User: Fold this.
Amino acid sequence: MDVRIGVVHTPKELSLEVLSEDADEVVKAFEAALTGEGPVVWLTDKDGRRVGIPADKLAYVEIDQHGSSKRVGFGGP
Assistant:
């Protein structure tokens, strides 16, 4: 599953391919951090790297569970 995360005051987004098969599990991790249960959201990508995102720096989170937004090629609609 692909997770794209916008960070406040940063023009680029973080893009991770996460091991979790359950989008609700990822959503719960972000919701818990945003409600004060933890200052950092930790995710593990497909290569086993752990990435921490400070909850107070989150701008948005986009979850693509099935990889449907992947595009190949150049230009064109």
Remarks:
- The helical segments are 23-34.
